[in-house]
Amino acid sequence: xxxxxxxxxxxxxxxxxxxxxxxxxxxxxxxxxxxxxxxxxxxxxxxxxxxxxxxxxxxxxxxxxxxxxxxxxxxxxxxxxxxxxxxxxxxxxxxxxxxxxxxxxxxxxxxxxxxxxxxxxxxxxxxxxxxxxxxxxxxxxxxxxxxxxxxxxxxxxxxxxxxxxxxxxxxxxxxxxxxxxxxxxxxxxxxxxxxxxxxxxxxxxxxxxxxxxxxxxxxxxxxxxxxxxxxxxxxxxxxxxxxxxxxxxxxxxxxxxxxxxxxxxxxxxxxxxxx
Length: 275
Known about the structure:
33% of the residues lie in helices and 21% in strands. It contains 8 helices and 7 strands, in the order ααβαβββαβααβααβ. α2 packs parallel to α3 (66-74) and α5 (155-169) packs across α8 (235-244). The longest helix has 15 residues, at 32-46.
């Protein structure tokens, strides 16, 4: 993961899979959005920062209003920008909105005191470039807080897809994105300039009513076959995969990482709750 010379994902394919799911963002039918937002909310509250700490805050990828509401309460004088990769994913009543890919952030150096990234980092085209971009957007003394799918996430689904590929084509291909563990995440944060980094991991379990709802979730999170070197799946592959998907439960390892723009005596990330 440290070699960032080539894109990890095929941007056109990644954009296409995300666009196909633009109308499927529904926190009520996929509780992971609310769970991630609530988890990050608790992390921010536990930092016990003064209300004057932040004047500008960027929230990227949130699917509920939980984080926005908390930041508005904790930092009443702050301007809060909500952003995502497409306009369809943003709340229509958000006062400050922005649409961009994390790797191509349009803001100038030192624009924000706090950046919160929700469930998007696992699908960055260039992870280290994205982190370096977010780092530059922070003022000195500011921090990035992110939570994303990592570790052994999607491992049981990956096994099913390998068996489907073997049946259809006689060979196995990568059908889900590779996941970053805590060690890799910390290394990328450090290489991007962050200091005082703290990282932890907790298990989350999701159940889906149908293979289609599972597919929509994977598309929405950029996790379905956007790799640069992966051949597109065909109808026979989907049929073989659905036949094997007897358990529509996903076990996700949620990686949370906090990194500061400068190294100083700032609060650290609280321990993850016991599972």
